[in-house]
Design a protein that fits this description.
Layout (H helix, E strand, L loop, with lengths): L2 H10 L3 H6 L18 H18 L6 H10 L5 E6 L5 H13 L3 E7 L2 H13 L4 E5 L11 E7 L7 H14 E10 L3 H14 L3 H13 L3 H10 L6 E5 L3 E7 H5 L1
Parallel strand pairs: 1-2, 1-4, 2-3, 4-5
Antiparallel strand pairs: 5-7, 6-7
C-alpha cells in the first residue's frame, strides 16, 4: 500500500471514544474502502478480510431458510437470486455452496459498482469451481435488472444516506418477483465493541480495522430500519434480530398483496 493510502486512512480514522459517545445518533462517515483511487491490492486485501469476518459470523446463513422455502415454492425451475453490492462475492459463493451441498437448483448472481471487487469475486468463484455470474451495476443510480425471484443485499445499507437507502429498498422491491432480504449491522455499543475486536483478530487489513467501527457508526437501529421500509412502501415487511447484533429485513410480494 502506498504512503498516500496510509495518509488517507489516518485522515479518516475516528477515535474509538468518539464513536462510542456518538452512537445515540447515526453518524455516516466516509470509509477508506469507498474512496476513489484506492490501490487495487489494498482493496482486495480489505475485501478478503471482510470475507473472513463474514464467514466467521456466518453472515450469509441468515438467507438460507428463506431460500429453502422459495425453492420448495417454485419447483421445476432454478431459483434466480441477485445479491446487490456483492463486493468480493463471499455471499454469492456461500449461496452457491448451499445449493451444491443441499441439491438446491439455484442460479446466483452478484452486482457491484466496483470493477476491482467484481474481478476478485469472479476469480474467487472460479477457484472454487462455483457457477456464479457477476456484473457491474449502480443500484442507486439506475433500476436493477429483472428476472430474479429473490434479491438480497448484505452489509450495504449502512454505507448509504437515508434517501439512498430508501431508494435501494424501492428498487429491490420493484424488481424482485417474490422476496427481498436485507442483512446489516445494528448500531449499538455492543456491536461497536465486537466489531472493533473482531476486525483486529480476524483481519490484518488496516482498512478493515478503520472501516469496521465506522460502519457501526453509520448503521441503523431497528426502529430506523422499520421507518425506512415503511417509507419505501414495503408493506408487510418483517424485521428480525440475530447474533452478533445483526438484523434481517424480509419483504414478500405475496404478503404485501395479501
Amino acid at each position: 500500500m502506498s504512503r498516500s493510502s496510509f495518509d488517507l486512512q489516518a485522515a479518516l480514522a475516528v477515535p474509538f471514544p468518539t464513536l462510542w459517545r456518538g452512537l445515540s445518533t447515526r453518524q455516516l462517515r466516509p470509509e477508506v474502502m469507498d474512496q476513489p483511487g484506492l490501490e487495487a491490492q489494498a482493496h482486495h486485501d480489505a475485501l478478503r478480510g471482510l470475507a473472513t469476518i463474514n464467514a466467521f459470523t456466518r453472515s450469509a446463513a441468515c438467507f438460507f431458510p428463506a431460500i429453502r422455502r422459495l425453492v420448495r415454492e417454485c419447483p421445476g425451475r432454478p431459483l434466480r437470486i441477485l445479491d446487490v453490492a456483492c463486493g468480493g462475492g463471499d455471499t454469492v459463493r456461500a449461496l452457491c455452496r448451499l445449493g451444491r451441498r443441499e441439491g438446491l437448483d439455484l442460479e446466483v448472481q452478484g452486482c457491484d459498482l466496483s470493477a476491482d471487487a467484481l474481478a476478485l469475486a469472479t476469480a474467487a468463484a472460479r477457484a472454487e469451481g462455483l457457477e456464479a455470474r457477476f456484473f457491474q451495476a449502480d443500484a442507486i443510480g439506475a433500476p436493477l435488472p429483472d428476472g430474479y425471484q429473490l434479491i438480497t443485499t448484505s452489509l450495504f445499507l449502512h454505507h448509504l444516506s437515508e434517501a439512498d437507502a430508501e431508494t435501494l429498498l424501492r428498487r429491490m422491491a420493484a424488481q424482485a418477483e417474490r422476496r427481498i432480504l436485507v442483512h446489516d449491522l445494528i448500531r449499538s455499543r455492543l456491536d461497536l465493541a465486537l466489531t472493533w475486536l473482531g476486525t483486529r483478530l480476524l483481519s490484518r487489513s488496516p482498512i478493515v480495522h478503520i472501516d469496521g467501527p465506522l460502519s457501526v457508526g453509520g448503521a441503523f437501529r431497528l426502529e430506523e430500519v422499520a421507518a425506512l421500509a415503511a417509507a419505501a412502501g414495503l408493506e408487510g415487511a418483517r424485521l428480525s434480530q440475530f447474533w452478533p447484533e445483526r438484523f434481517l429485513l424480509s419483504w414478500s410480494r405475496d404478503a404485501a398483496h395479501g
